[in-house]
Amino acid sequence: MSTINQSGWRPEMNAVEGGAGATFTGNRALMLEEALIFEIGALDTTGVDFEPCAPAKAGAQSGEDTAFGSGPLLSQGNRLAGLERHRDIGLPGLSEPEAVRHYTRLSRQNYGIDLGFFPLGSCTMKHNPRLNERMARLPGFADIHPLQPVDTVQGALEVIDQLAHWLVTLTGMKAVAMSPKAGAHGELCGILAIKAALEARGEDRRVVLVPESAHGTNPATAAFAGFTVEDIPATPDGRVDVDALTARLGPDVAGVMITNPNTCGLFERDLKTISDAVHAAGGYVYCDGANFNAIVGKVRPGDLGVDAMHINLHKTFSTPHGGGGPGSGPVVLSEALAPFAPLPFVEKQGDRLALIEEETADEHHGESFGRMVSFHGQMGMFTRALTYILSHGADGLKQVAEDAVLNANYVLRALEGVLDAPFAKSGPCMHEAIFSDRGLAEGFSTLDIAKGLIDEGFHPMTVYFPLVVHGAMLVEPTETESKATLDQFIGAFRAVAERAKAGDAALKSAPHFAPRRRLDETQAARKPVLVWKEPAQAQAAE
Ligand SMILES: *Cc1c(COP(=O)(O)O)cnc(C)c1O
């Protein structure tokens, strides 16, 4: 039996091989270890001292109908109709300082964009400007309720309307549906608009073409909406194979879903040619715009023939994401798809703004495919994104795209000598640089490099995506990182990659300095333990 320290942590769980570095407590200097709350709090104590409850009184007279049922059920002396708890509640009892420390220690083990570099490819983990946060916290935005009378929230509606205006302007599109709550939700919105447009035309087209390099959400969305997904191969230089795509077009094809810039970090130069061909064949073009950061202010997808595209406000427009906040995925729509946009939307009516909640027979929005969310979308994110757009201005947004691309190319050129960069010869990349695991020592993989980077103090890049590159490592630095940060990252990445090429055995068991060592990720995914059980119970279950 090992010793368990005050926080339930067993030192050997954190021991470094060879014994050096193990501490009695398992703590590492002032970075404290943390056990589960159930392991530090006792189930038979309570952290607060409430008076014992008096027995509940009957809530209603016998025989009287209430929301809880009629008379006989209430005869047990309270209004819980026999559902009252008789066993212990089984929650850990902790005092206030213990509870505060537990969550504060956990929060220190969390990694976020406010702590350091977060080069997760395809995720655009840029800095979230504090000005955005200040605006979103203004009481006029933060303290309103979506069911308030429209006359009392004209300012909030104006934020939605102004943001809609700038999104439509930046993309060169006709309209925008603001309510989708994430990129994938936006994809669903766009695909449902395409479906509604086809239905209005009385056509039954069942196939959606998706390039191999697509984000996993694209085929998932098309399948979810009832379409059959067919893959379109990529060319050796990492772009959509235009000939293969046009050859597949026909009366059964509803449309294509293309990511631009694509997930190999390359601009799809032939998108206009593709759009023209798709339109000529009677289909629609969905563009996955999650990577808009690389082209914002420089390219208007509407000019490339796109019919629908989601914009991840939580990527390009700097609203927090991941653990930091909800996403928001407005969808811009072409003239052809605009009439089918989901409800609700904001509309100018004279000098006031109205919220159109229901279909009207109106020629502009009589054909809405319905509603996707209860209310109007992510109001806090709208406020942050509009703040970001207005504080950058047209020139600032253009510079965002230019600096994001510059930073990615800096990383690409700095690392192409040490790692295989499959598309480096295709020319400059866009916002992200991609590497493969070719050339690593026998038995060493992309995962080892990712784990080694954790020891170096960097959140790893995206790994094993996109699937078209073997052992892919996708690095997206974004424009908000300084040259000094990138240089430090590049140095660490080089050092770790060299170790993987030289076959340094210690790398196989990295991370060595993280709160947890290398986890069995397969086991964690296949047999996740999501509920804490008392040790005796857990043993009995095994
Ligand atoms: C992030 C991303 C998505 C999905 O966006 P969510 O907001 O996570 O649903 C879709 N496609 C691409 C290319 C992305 O990078």
Automatic annotation (TrEMBL):
The lineage of its organism: Bacteria, Pseudomonadati, Pseudomonadota, Alphaproteobacteria, Sphingomonadales. Residues 402-501 form the Glycine dehydrogenase C-terminal domain. Keywords: Oxidoreductase, Pyridoxal phosphate. InterPro entries: Aminotrans_V_dom (IPR000192), GDC-P_C (IPR049316), GDC_P (IPR020581), PyrdxlP-dep_Trfase (IPR015424), PyrdxlP-dep_Trfase_major (IPR015421), PyrdxlP-dep_Trfase_small (IPR015422). GO terms for molecular function: glycine dehydrogenase (decarboxylating) activity. The glycine cleavage system catalyzes the degradation of glycine. The P protein binds the alpha-amino group of glycine through its pyridoxal phosphate cofactor; CO(2) is released and the remaining methylamine moiety is then transferred to the lipoamide cofactor of the H protein. It catalyses: N(6)-[(R)-lipoyl]-L-lysyl-[glycine-cleavage complex H protein] + glycine + H(+) = N(6)-[(R)-S(8)-aminomethyldihydrolipoyl]-L-lysyl-[glycine-cleavage complex H protein] + CO2. This is glycine dehydrogenase (aminomethyl-transferring). Residues 203-322 form the Aminotransferase class V domain. SUPFAM superfamilies: PLP-dependent transferases. Its EC number is 1.4.4.2. Coiled coil: none annotated.
